[in-house]
Design a protein that fits this description.
The protein is 33% helix and 31% strand. Strands 11, 12, 16, 17, 18 and 19 form a six-stranded antiparallel sheet that branches. The chain has a five-stranded antiparallel sheet with strand order 1-2-4-7-6. Residues 1-13, 378-383, 393-400, 463-467, 498-505, 533-538 and 694-704 have low confidence and may be disordered.
Amino acid sequence: MAAAMGAAVAWAQGLEVRLAPQEVYLGDAFSLRVETGAGRIAALEPVFSLPARVGGNATGTVSVNGRTTWSRSVTVVPEQAGTYRLERLTVRLADGSTHAYDGHPEVRVAELEADPEVSLTMRAEPADPMPGDAVTLVVECRTPALRQGGQRLSPFFGEDFFRGVVPRAPNIRVPLPDAADSPLRQTDRGTLADPVPEGDGLLWRLTFPFRAERAGEVTFSAPVLNDTRVVPEGGELRPKRTLAMGAPLTLRVEEPPLEGRPEGYVGAICRDFSAVAALDAHNVRLGDPLRLTLTLRADCDPALLRAPTLPPLDGFRAVGEPERTDAADGVSFAYTLRPTRVGLLELPAVPLAWFDRAAKAYRVFAAPALPVRVRASAQRPPTAPPPALTRADGPAGEWPLWPWLCLAAGAAALALRLLWAPLRGLGRALAAPFRARRPLAQARAVLARTADPAEAAAAVRLWAGRPSLTPAELRAALAPSPEAEEAVEAYARLEAAAYSGGGDVPEARATLRRLLPTLRLLALLALCLTPLALTAAPDAFARDRAWAAALEAGRPEEVSAAADLWLGLVRAGDDSRATLVNAATLALLADRPADALALLTRCERLHGRSPDGDQAMRAVCAALARPEPRPWARVAWRRVAGWAAATLGLCLFLCAVPWRRLRLARALALAAALILAAWALAVRTAVRHAPLPEPSAPATEVAP
């Protein structure tokens, strides 16, 4: 009975092992089943004499008369023809124990020969696809037919055809390539159509839809039919195993040739192509945006279409990148244009090239030209390009070289004045031995006239460039007078108070003389820092906000708002060249050339001419249709800076002049320097606080 069931059964160590069926064809599978009463089976580890693939675990539990049997089965797929012998089997139970099976059951695997009555063919439609094409893989199978009552039936009933099972379709397997490496993308599942009578047999057609996405090459493996069909044999119907194999197919997806490709190719590969060009307005003002829309229609994948390249536009300027819109009626590309001159203009025809699949050649479709009437605006936009924005966070203003030299000379004079007292003391200390010779000679002359050494010392101390009288000589000279003694006492007190080094008045005077240079230096520093405090730079965060607004400005209202921010910086006190030129550039882009002219004139008077300022001035003059103004001969800011530096240097230099000399001349020079500094500051303030254009004001010329 075991042989009739086609099973190999063996018992060893409480294990029941079965291999079924004992005869299979290459490509079929057989099962390995193990039953045991020792416990639940966790895993099976079989080893066969020939290579095979093992998988498909299935478990079961059966209890009969209180005896429980656990089972586990696996599916074995042989990889070559021959006799498969179970060399070793290891059974692992759930409790961790391991059992080895020592039996060696066998299964014979026969190689199935191709059935000459069944054929398989495979082809692709179209055979030479291009990117964007719909590709259909067609597999055709021709089989014999069973005739019953004048009808042709499918011969594939399965092994139980005697039970009246309805005929079915053949089992055709088509290995498809990996989607990641293939230039084709499968768009739907395969479809097997109903059989069609062909001669004495039937024709089966299996189709797979694909879409060619890119150029490349793909290979489809050979299709295989491995099934059982019913054949008449000896007046009876018997099952017959049938094998049929087709040939592999290599398909190449190619791009249109590069040779002969015209300008304006939009990527369309189709048989029918059309395009429509439209404008949102045909009557606009100078500088207003104009929208050109090109709608492309082609019987190909819309993803292949790309934005056309516009030809050279006379009187128009393209702004930004085109906007793509996919719709059911085609793909649209919208371009933003701005007219640059007044008159009746014409947008030229846009050449659109596409590849005609039927003719295998390139075609050119030209959209019609479109007329546009451009009117003059209240303020003409600049015909010369303004300069680019420049970010400069340095100090405001530019000074010439000679004021710095004057300032350095004044600083050197001040340093010399501060070091004058120590240097003079050092010189006196070094010259003391030589200067003491003359007082010693005078002391010897006095000692020759008096016998009192104290009186001689007092006479030497009273030396003021000529010989002094001793107290005795003074008393003798004043002897006839009744006030002689009082005069001598007053003379002695005066000598003691003036030259003895004691007393509060001389000490206070010495302290005041030592502090006087420091007080003068502090007063000068306060005088110098006051104009700087009055002309402090604006808030740095305001400059950062203005710079960010200028970079992000795209629409006209955003450009106007950015121009107002930069104008606010100028009004807050930032008179640097970069700030003035940037404010003028944004005012020019905001269609306010008169405001830009006022800012550029102010920049030229403060800092002189520069390349970016000249470029902006040319753009402003072109927008206002007026000739360029002559450059200002004198630069106010440089003169004011030079006068201020020269005044400071002169004040510092005058501090180094000793107070004993040139008192009147020094007072006059100091007064002149202060008057000059005040006048320079007034001129600077007048230039800086000149009238400025109001934010978002109407375009009127404002004098700086």
